[in-house]
Amino acid sequence: MPLPKTKEELLNNLHTAYKKLDMEFNEIKPSATRSRAINGGISVCDIVAYQIGWGRLLLGWDKEELDGKNPEMPAKGFKWSELGRLAQSFYKSSEKKSLVTLRREFKDVVEETSDWINKMSAGELFKLGRRKWAGEKWPIVKWIQVNTVAPYSSARTKIRRWKKNLAA
């Protein structure tokens, strides 16, 4: 998926991907939300927890830098080579939450991300080197894309495949 060229396009992509993914959860029976039958041995709730986890990390990196701190990336106690373990930590932290609660948290993260995007200038979003945490290779818009829009679309595909297999 190509990177958006404007803030409006980024926000539209974010909201469209979120709405499409969230709609997939509408008719899932509560008894099926914790079944680890989705490709990769994960549940519907795990998928939502993953989106929440990465969304919070993304927002946190920027907040920490703006607060004069040096954010630990990808997360405190984790290296980039340990993303599977990081995903497991997202699942574990939400294992007692219902899909209803997780969907509400997911919506909140998307709204916080939208607010954050709206507060940034086009230069901050689209030019390199505007935040130390973002580095010199990727503009913030790419970090947003790979931590929101792209995984939302991927998650939707997994959910749809799982639902199709349930119906078969």
In short:
The chain has a single domain (7-25, 33-162), classed as Up-down Bundle (Four Helix Bundle (Hemerythrin (Met), subunit A)), CATH 1.20.120. With 168 residues, the chain is mainly α. It has helices at residues 7-23, 44-66, 83-93, 99-119, 122-126, 140-147, 149-167.
Structural descriptors:
Four Helix Bundle (Hemerythrin (Met), subunit A), 7 helices, mainly alpha, 168 residues
Describe the structure.
The protein is mainly α. The protein has one domain (7-25, 33-162): Four Helix Bundle (Hemerythrin (Met), subunit A) (Up-down Bundle). It has 7 helices and no strands. It has helices spanning 7-23, 44-66, 83-93, 99-119, 122-126, 140-147, 149-167. The longest helix has 23 residues, at 44-66. The mean pLDDT is 96.
Helices and strands in order, then pairings?
Layout: H1 7-23, H2 44-66, H3 83-93, H4 99-119, H5 122-126, H6 140-147, H7 149-167
Number of strands: 0
Q: What class do helices, strands and sheet pairing give? A: mainly alpha
Gyration radius from CA atoms, angstroms? 16 Å
What is the mean predicted local confidence, pLDDT?
96
* Approximate helicity band: 55-70%
Assigned CATH superfamily: dinb family like domain
The CATH class is: Mainly Alpha
* Helical stretch tally: 7
Per the principal axes of the C-alpha atoms, what is the gross shape?
globular
Order of helices and strands: HHHHHHH
Largest sheet: none
| DSSP strand content | under 5%
Q: Which second-level CATH architecture applies?
A: Up-down Bundle
CATH topology tier name: Four Helix Bundle (Hemerythrin (Met), subunit A)
Q: Low-confidence segments, ≥5 residues, pLDDT <50?
A: none
How many domains comprise the coordinates?
1
